[in-house]
Amino acid sequence: MMWMPFTPRWLVHHGRPGEARVTLATLRDLPVDHELIELEFLEIQAQSLFEKRTVAAQFPHLSEPTAWNTVKLQFVAIGSLFKTRPMFRRGSYIKTDFMLALRLTLVRSNCCDRDNVLSTVSA
Predict the structure, then answer these.
(1) Is residue 3 part of a domain?
(2) What whole-number distance in Å separates Cα of residue 112 and Cα of residue 27?
(3) Distance between CA 15 and CA 18 in Å, rounded?
(4) How many domains does the chain contain in total?
(5) Rama region for 34: left / alpha / beta (φ>0; ψ in -120 to 50; rest)
(6) Does this model's pTM top 0.90?
(7) Could you tell me which of 6, 10, 22, 27 has the C-alpha nearest to residue 123?
């Protein structure tokens, strides 16, 4: 697998909400304007906004969008992974985002039956 698609969470966090909605709709096999897609999208959007505001409050000196500040914030994010250890919790965002990307890749490539993929890969 040479290419992994962006997850809806990543797309929202990086200011690409239209693509996030399309990705969610593809993953859920629902129309983009479906109520469940809208609800999940709003949940992801709220989480992203919360994360951005939390980082801005905790690290106001890194708010200017420079390359060096971006690198520093990446180290902050990596450090928080080791402090909170979310990768070891069941249903963590890391696992969930990876599984969503994997599902989307398999479904888009048509290498597997959509229902089979979605039922065997649990988030």
Answers:
(1) no
(2) 14
(3) 9
(4) 1
(5) beta
(6) no
(7) 27
